[in-house]
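Lab meeting, item 3. Inverse folding demo.
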């Protein structure tokens, strides 16, 4: 499994999350991604997939396509869905300095993805929602 690009389609349901995590781990392992970066990539993908299932599909949907790509020493992961359009500009930035008791539940997903990855880009086109996440200089 040393291909530089791998694409897989998963059912857009919460029960798919372990399979999605395994898929990302297999991609990273085959490309010799360092362990810390592999953990960050997996966690960011799990968060993005959870958000897609919950918000784009309201808990279950037709499909979630995940493309893992090795670009030099960088790993790119793109998640694509065909659910409700998503505009990250409509999501309030969380106040991570507020006391825990004062923070609303949820709303940290995009923040976590941005902290874990070097770049996160969202787009909505006629062929669905896409989120592209890039982790740089991670191949050992």
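The presenter then showed the designed sequence:
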């Amino acid at each position: 499994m040393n291909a530089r690009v791998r694409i897989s389609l998963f059912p857009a349901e919460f029960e798919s999350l372990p399979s999605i995590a395994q898929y990302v781990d297999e991609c990273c392992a085959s490309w010799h991604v360092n362990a810390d970066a592999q953990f960050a990539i997996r966690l960011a993908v799990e968060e993005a997939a959870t958000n897609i299932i919950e918000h784009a599909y309201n808990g279950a949907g037709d499909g979630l396509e995940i493309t893992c790509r090795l670009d030099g020493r960088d790993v790119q992961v793109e998640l694509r869905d065909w659910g409700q359009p998503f505009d990250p500009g409509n999501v309030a930035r969380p106040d991570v300095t507020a006391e825990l008791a004062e923070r609303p539940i949820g709303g940290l997903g995009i923040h976590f993805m941005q902290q874990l990855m070097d770049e996160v880009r969202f787009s909505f086109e006629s062929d669905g929602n896409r989120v592209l996440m890039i982790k740089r200089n991670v191949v050992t």
